[in-house]
Write a structure and sequence with these properties.
This protein is mainly α and 303 residues long. The chain folds into two domains: 249 residues, no CATH class; 37 residues. The protein contains 16 helices and no strands. Helix 1 runs antiparallel to helix 6. The longest helix has 37 residues.
């Protein structure tokens, strides 16, 4: 047997074991998700606030505002309303409501590894990334909570999965598929724009590069027309969604109050850097207050 044939045989066995390991991680994650789903009891307060909207508000009201200052993507809200209309008399309505987050979590389990393998080109990097996410307690937890949170990463992974598929990139069928996935993502995720923007910039740069950095040649190409169709539709979906749902939303102030510590604003960044560098220096006020506290404790001990 030649050296090349021997190497192919070894790598084939390695690939088989690698795939088995990925499958074991996925199966273990699904088992943990099922345990989390069926061992939960009752709802948290914010889940109750959402489910009351699903029960008592019609679709028109759900598209304008939810009860108790709640905000969620329209796709998620409409899905849960339909579930209530179909299964309102079921003794297992709690589990029916948890189907949406569970299916989103299941989708991530199946799509995450192949997606990041295509993006990175490395099975090792994709495996460690997959392993880290699958056994992340917060990921397992949100796959059974009646909230939209797990739908956000699912929409991102779904879009990246179809975007990263191999083959001719600028085919009409592929572009139409991405438009459909984008529409689903826009109406089921409030953060999909943060995925669409870098993808659009990357595709635009690739078109320019393939045209040897000649802008006129790029603008005349068939690929550029498909690029405009794909991202023009994405922008249209975002504008429609923003104008009809997010703009002048009655709970805007409430949203900003809840989310101000959840995103990397300049204030958050300054606070983060301050906390990091506090490890390396001692604030005099903090040190003096600690000394005073220790002194007071010593006096109490002596008494």
């Amino acid at each position: 047997m030649s050296a090349q044939g021997l190497w192919q045989k070894i790598t084939a066995k390695f690939d088989d074991k690698f795939n088995i390991l990925v499958a074991l991680i996925g199966v273990t994650t699904v088992v943990l998700m099922l345990c989390q789903l069926f061992l939960r009891c009752g709802f948290w307060l914010d889940e109750i606030s959402l489910t009351e909207s699903f029960m008592f508000l019609d679709f028109k009201r759900l598209a304008t505002e939810l009860a108790f200052g709640q905000v969620a993507p329209l796709g998620f809200v409409f899905w849960e309303r339909i579930v209530w209309l179909l299964a309102e008399n079921s003794a297992y309505i709690e589990y029916w409501w948890r189907i949406y987050p569970f299916l989103c979590g299941l989708g991530i389990v199946f799509l995450y590894y192949p997606t990041f393998y295509r993006l990175t080109g490395s099975k090792v990097i994709a495996l460690f990334s997959y392993l880290f996410l699958m056994f992340l307690p917060v990921f397992i937890y949100y796959t059974s909570e009646v909230k939209q949170y797990i739908g956000e990463p699912f929409c991102a992974v779904l879009l990246l999965y179809f975007w990263s598929k191999t083959g001719e990139k600028w085919r009409l069928k592929r572009v139409l598929t991405l438009i459909a996935v984008t529409a689903f993502g826009v109406f089921n995720s409030l953060t999909i724009c943060f995925v669409l923007l870098p993808l659009g910039l990357w595709d635009g740069f690739e078109l320019l590069k393939n045209a040897h950095y000649r802008i006129i040649s790029m603008l005349k190409s068939k690929e550029f027309r498909l690029y405009v169709l794909q991202y023009g539709m994405a922008l249209t979906f975002l504008v429609i969604y923003y104008a009809s749902f997010l703009y002048n939303h009655p709970h805007t102030e409430h949203m900003l109050g809840c989310w101000q510590f959840s995103f990397a604003t300049m204030s958050n960044v300054r606070n983060l850097l301050d906390q990091v560098f506090r490890f390396f220096y001692r604030d005099e006020d903090i040190c003096s207050s600690r000394r005073e506290l220790l002194s007071a404790q010593n006096k109490v001990m002596k008494m």
